Amino acid sequence: MSTGEKNLEVLLASLDPALDPELYVFGSLPVSEGARLAGLNPLASFQEDEGLSVILSQADAVKAGLPDAPVFQRITVRVQSSLEAVGLTAAVAACLAGQGLPANIVAATFHDHVFVPAARAEEALEALRTLSASQAET
Q1: Which end of the chain has the least Cβ crowding within 10 Å, N or C?
Q2: Cα–Cα distance between 54 and 131 in angstroms, integer?
Q3: Element of type H or E holding 93
Q4: How far is residue 90's CA from residue 71's CA, in Å, rounded to a whole number?
Q5: In sequence order, what E strands does the chain have?
Q6: Using 50, 70 and 90 to split pLDDT, how confident is the model at 63?
């Protein structure tokens, strides 16, 4: 397995963000009700003290009986970053915060995934492209 890039300048210049057309919601279930996810395909889950947090497609969230929740789209930052890279998450979050965009970032083994409000996903994608292009120019 590759260790991924650690140099922040290289990471930012190579973001290559891609917008997933799927709509997602974040939800939480009591751990004892995790069986409600049977037959569904959560994109991610994390057990917290308060319950099992899940990221599901909007359709699967409805099937699981989760309450209405804000709808997000995922932007995958396709540069392969190291889990030991310093500053990538902060730079992406700061870029989006500068545009008044909420960002929920999930770091996986190979890429970071940024969940933004679906209604502003194109705006967020453009902001990340601009960030990357400005770093590539330096």
Answers
A1: N
A2: 29
A3: helix 88-97
A4: 23
A5: 17-19, 24-29, 44-48, 51-57, 72-77, 104-107, 112-117
A6: confident
